[in-house]
Amino acid sequence: MEVQSILSKVRRVEIKAKGLSNDIFAGQYHSAFKGRGMTFSEVREYQYGDDVRDIDWNVTARFHRPYVKVYEEERELTVMLLVDVSGSLDFGTKKQFKRDLLVELAATLAFSAIQNNDKIGVIFFSDHVEKFIPPKKGRKHILYIIRELLEYKPESRATNVSTAVQYLTNAIKKRCTAFVISDFIDDHDFYQPLVIANKKHDVVAIQIYDVRVTDLPDVGLLRIRDSETGAERYIDTSSRRVRDAHKAHWLKRQEALHNVFARCNVDAVSVRTDEDFVKSLMGLFAKRSRKV
Predict the structure, then answer these.
(1) Helix 3-20 vs helix 139-151: angle between axes, to the nearest 10 degrees?
(2) By the 8 A CB rule, do 129 and 123 touch?
(3) Is 156 helix (H, G, I), strand (E, B) or coil?
């Protein structure tokens, strides 16, 4: 792809993602993802309602009237995006591909993080860790991440969420907030690695999916191809039994996936390619704000 075309795409994503993070997510993001604790800021005179446990007795004795210590949140976080780059993301039937939605969503989270003075890093994964971008701050770093989100060509088309989660646990030493962004079409068991990662870090799962994994259209004989393995087969979508079986399989997978997240105590949200992700993320942020 020509350099000018790449820059144009990066700019379009930047404008949309930055606008969303400025207008919608900044306050919600701040309250949903807390800093590491409280740090001393200053002392001031005691006011009615202040906690007596915050009285600074040395200053109080010096000025012969009560003073209290004032603390502020130690706000800076490290935010990691664990981004699925496997072949199954190259699918979409209405508004956009799953990969396009993933890029917009990841870019919006990145801008929200940078607005709050947080560091942001990325782990690209397929069935192995493809690329690691260490967490940093700044617009230049964000634009580099967006360019990689748009242009990165994975070595493998398969998926293994465990490899990315295990890498996160080992590579990031201090506690961070980690967003795993994937369609979670993965037959590997990632429960145990996710439990371990979420004990060390604050892990959030964002599932991206397309309406056609939930409901098949009645369009007769259809040739389908697995984008990760390349296997092809025909299915008769005019058969109600086939369509019902397809939906039942999806619902069973979703139930199993949500059970894993619940058992790991991982907050999760599902976003569909033909719907605006704003409402879904706002719901996730509001839910977390009530918990913290």
Answers:
(1) 120
(2) yes
(3) coil
Nearest by Cα to 250 from 270, 275, 276: 270
**161-171 and 191-200 are packed helices; what angle lies between their axes, rounded to 10 degrees?**
30
Q: Cα–Cα distance between 261 and 221 in angstroms, integer?
A: 36
Regarding pTM above 0.70, the answer is yes
CA of residue 73 relative to chain centroid, distance: 23
Burial track 192-203 (b if 16+ CB lie within 10 A, e otherwise): ebbbebbebbbb
Structure token digits, residue 108: 């919006």
Q: How far, in Å, CA of 222 to CA of 233, rounded?
A: 8
Q: Give the least confident one: 20-34, 161-175, 244-258, 262-276.
A: 20-34
The first and second tokens of residue 142, run together, are 């964000």
Distance of CA 214 to the CA centre of its chain: 22
E strand or H helix at 3: helix 3-20
Tokens of 28: 């919600």
Separation CA 55–CA 221 (nearest Å): 76
Q: How much of the chain is in helix, strand and coil states, percent to nearest 5?
A: 45, 25, 30
Q: Would you state the structure tokens that stand for residue 7, as one six-digit string?
A: 């820059």
Nearest to 148 by CA among 131, 125, 172: 131
Per-residue tokens: 82: 């664990």
Over 80: is that where the pLDDT of 147 sits? yes
